[in-house]
Each structure stands twice: as C-alpha cells, then as structure tokens.
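Handout, section B. The chain below has 295 residues.
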Amino acid sequence: MCTVCGCGGHSVEDAFRAHLEKTGQAGAPLAAHPAPLQSVAIPALGGALHDHGHAHAGHDIHLGHGPAGTEVPGMSQQRLIEIETDILSKNDAFAARNRAAITARHAFATNLVSSPGSGKTTLLCRTIEMLGEVPLAVIEGDQQTTNDADRIRATGAAAIQVNTGKGCHLDGRMVEAALARLGLPEGAFLFIENVGNLVCPAAFDLGEDAKVAILSVTEGEDKPLKYPDMFAAAGLAILNKVDLAPYCDVDLDLYEANVKRVNPAIEVLRVSARTGEGMQAWLDWLRAGLARKGA
C-alpha cells in the first residue's frame, strides 16, 4: 500500500514539512496509531469468501495476503507493519486535530475519493450551485495545477489548492495547513476533493466526517471488487454519470451489488451531475450530516 511504497514515507512528508516550516506552520508532537489497516475480504456471490488456497488457470500471482497486506522485496511482514503503523500514527495526530477544529465550527466535512475522471469536480460544482447561500469551503488535492480549484472559485466558493507533487493522496497535515488558510465558517460544509486514486487515500484519515466514494458508470461494474479498500472505508458511494449508462452497455444494478459485496452497510446513490438526476438525494444526505453536527 501507499504507506510502504514510498509516497507515504519520508520523501513526501519531509518535503511538505519543509514547506510548512518556510511558511511558519511547523507541526506539534505526534500521537500513536492503534494498528495498521487490514485487507478487505470480499464475499463471493452467494455469500462465501473467495479463498486463494486453490490454483488459477494461467498461474495468476496473488500478493498481499500476509499480515501487512503487501509485499516488499527484502522486508519482513513485521517490518512493513511497523513502517505503516509509524506513518499512520503521525497522520492520525493531524487528523484528530482537524476533526476537533471542524467539530468546533459545527461543520460537516466530506472526503471525496475516486479514480481520476469520475466527475468529482463537476459534481462538486453542481452541488455548490444547488446549495445556494449555505456557507462552505473546498480543499482541492491534485499532483499539479490549480485547474480544479479555479473551477470551484468560479462558482463563488472559497477554495484552496493543495498540490502534492509526487504524493498520490492528501494527508492530515496537508489538510491542517489548508484549514489554517481557509478560515472555515461556522456551520459550513467542508468538501475535501482528494487526489484521483482508488488505493492510497483509503488509508489516510483527514479528519473528515465521512468518506464519499465516487464511481462513474464508464469505469466498469467490477471496479469496487478490484479496489475494495476504498469502498470498505466509505460511508456513501455515488454512482455518477448515470446519464451515460444507455451508451456504455453497463448494468447499474450490478454496480450497486458489487459495492455492497465489499461494504454491505454502505448507501449508494445514482447521480448525474449533468442532468441533475439524483442530486436532491445527495443534498439531503449532506444536510442530514450537517444537522448531526448541531448546525
């Protein structure tokens, strides 16, 4: 996973630390993380878990079944777990501070996660337009450019772009720095649009109230089964671009069934940001979340 492949390690962390020190935002002491994330087991159709204790035609290679959930040449499973725990413990300290700050403002924060091109930014722009005068702020994560933040600002909403460079996800420290610049209003919606990536953002708590996994109909019905950790971590899944379904030869019911195979408790909304289909249900979900924060 990301925490041991390098992008979650010292290279990105140290680069961001240097940036914060330059801007006078050096961090505070760090806390401990209880345990590394565990791999997600996907029930087969009919309810039985798929087990790799048998042979597959073509001699397929199945890695990541040890305790660490991944494999690195020359490194033991125990060492991988130690590295992951260390990185996530540092991140969780920042996430806890973010969560406290967001809660103190009675705000509701969502972490929008998906593959690149799923329609996150278009969905977010349409959401902002439909929410009207409700206070809100947006943190945009990408490796490069301010394109998405510029699109958000064009709606009149406050937005800050976080460019991660070679990093493939936002982390708690990046969000803490962004919050310090945003000035989150009381009783606001905070939308965090993560870097387009269905793997690494699943492991990193940003201090959000809920992860929202966005999946477009053009990605294939088996996407939740290929990338289960993200859908297991999410509280809501949005099946986006449903207006394209008639042209893509896809089965929307199968999309939803596969999401629920990974996470039976997840709620799934079918949405088109272009036509407005399903948008009211999405807004209702957001408003219910904000109401729970006491705003």
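Note. The chain has one domain: 85-294. Compare this with the example in section A.
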